[in-house]
Structure formats: C-alpha cells, structure tokens
Design goal:
2 helices, elongated
Length: about 120
C-alpha cells in the first residue's frame, strides 16, 4: 500500500492512468481528509464517482485533495485509494489520473523510453 502524499508537495500524475509523457501533468496536494472525517460533498463524490468504478476502487481510507495543471478551468480534484493501494482521481473526465507519489511510474516511463531508444539503434 502506497504511503500518503505530503501536503504542499507537487507530484506527477498520469491522465486516465496511461503512463506516457504526453499524458503526464502535475498536481500539488492541498489537504488530506480521513474517510471518517469526510464532509457530505466528499462522500457524495465518492458515491457518484468512486463506488461505481468497482474495478478500480473498493474502499478508501483517505481523500487527498489537490490542484492540478491538467486543465486550468477545473484545477481542483480529489484522489482516493485504489484496490492496489495506489491513488487515482475521482472524476469522470478532468483530474482523473494516477498519482505517482514514489516516482515508480516515472521510473517505468524512463525504462520504457530507454528500451524504445535501444530498439531504434
């Protein structure tokens, strides 16, 4: 299970969970809310966007609020914990991406790019 991100820190995130440079954007963590302290707005978002995505979410222990560079007109979003212990944005379009708090997704992307470059030689 991935640790909690740090409030105030900026992380890479990948749109729709697709790990590529063209799908990468940055998020800055603004607040972390334990599930049992969530307000009605967060719980409604969870019920409308999280629970129906049964292949991705089962339950979450925290909601992680953030601001994003993905789309300037809708910069705010919320992550919830995924079944595999990672973090994914709640939303049906903007700010629904996979958070990379430990740089493992960036490492995967770098390795994929290195392999593609070796194949071109």
């Amino acid at each position: 299970m991935k640790n909690l991100p740090e409030i105030g820190k900026t992380y890479n995130c990948f749109d729709d969970g697709k790990i590529s440079e063209s799908r990468m954007y940055q998020v800055t963590i603004t607040e972390i809310v334990p599930f049992d302290k969530a307000d009605d707005e967060l719980l409604e978002l969870w019920e409308e966007e999280g629970l129906p995505s049964y292949w991705l979410f089962d339950k979450t222990d925290y909601f992680v609020k953030f601001t994003s560079t993905e789309f300037k007109d809708e910069p705010n979003g919320v992550f919830a914990r995924t079944k595999d212990g990672g973090w994914f944005g709640l939303g049906n379009y903007w700010n629904s991406g996979r958070l990379d708090i430990d740089s493992s997704l960036m490492e995967y992307l770098k390795n994929k790019q290195d392999e593609n470059n070796r194949q071109k030689i």
